[in-house]
Write a structure and sequence with these properties.
4 strands
C-alpha cells in the first residue's frame, strides 16, 4: 500500500488513457472509496452513475463546450450526482466522494481527471446538467456535479514538486 503522503504527491490529472479496460474489482474499489467518504450528517445522499458504454461516454464528452473532450478516450466515466433539496451540502459531499475515487484510482495505478459539469454548458445556453440527464436518464431531482474520466495512464506525469508548494498561502491563527 502506498503511503498517503506519497499518494497525494503522485496523484495528477491524466487526460490520456490506453484502450485497456479497467478490471471490475478495481472499479468496485474505486466506488467503495466513494461510498466510504465522509458526508454531512452522515447522509450519504450522493448517487453515482458508472458509464463504460463508448457511445454514452462520447456523448458525455460533448455535454459542455470546453474541457470534456478527453473523456472520449476514457474507458470508464463516473458521474457524481446529488439532490440539492435533500442535502444542502451535496456539492461538498460529492466533491469529497470524487476526490476519494481519484485517490483510490491513483493507488491502483490508474489515471483520472475531474470534469466540472455543475454550472457549465453549451454556447446555446443548454446546461451540461440537462445534457447529461438526457443521456443517462437521470431523475429531475438530482443535479450533476462532475464526471470523472478514469483509465490506464497513457502518459507520464511527474509528481508534485515539493519546492513549488505555496506555503505562503497558509496562515496561523489569523490572516
Amino acid at each position: 500500500m502506498t503511503s498517503f503522503k506519497d499518494l497525494a504527491q503522485m496523484r495528477r490529472s491524466h487526460r490520456k488513457f490506453t484502450t485497456e479496460e479497467i478490471d471490475a474489482d478495481d472499479v468496485k474499489l474505486i466506488l467503495r472509496a466513494a461510498l466510504m467518504s465522509p458526508t454531512s450528517k452522515g447522509q450519504r445522499a450522493w448517487q453515482f452513475v458508472v458509464v463504460d458504454d463508448k457511445l454514452s461516454i462520447e456523448k458525455l464528452s460533448d455535454a459542455k463546450d470546453m474541457g470534456g473532450q478527453f473523456l472520449k478516450g476514457a474507458p470508464l466515466c463516473i458521474v457524481v450526482l446529488g439532490d440539492p433539496m435533500q442535502n444542502a451540502c451535496w456539492v461538498e459531499d460529492g466533491s469529497i466522494a470524487a476526490i476519494s475515487m481519484q485517490y483510490q484510482a491513483e493507488e491502483l495505478g490508474l489515471g483520472s481527471c475531474w470534469v466540472q459539469m455543475r454550472g457549465r454548458g453549451l454556447s446555446d445556453g443548454t446546461s451540461a446538467d440537462t445534457v447529461i440527464r438526457g443521456i443517462l436518464d437521470i431523475p429531475e431531482n438530482l443535479s450533476v456535479l462532475c464526471v470523472l474520466g478514469i483509465g490506464h495512464k497513457a502518459d507520464e506525469r511527474k509528481p508534485q514538486n515539493e519546492d513549488k508548494l505555496k506555503w505562503e498561502n497558509v496562515h496561523l491563527n489569523q490572516y
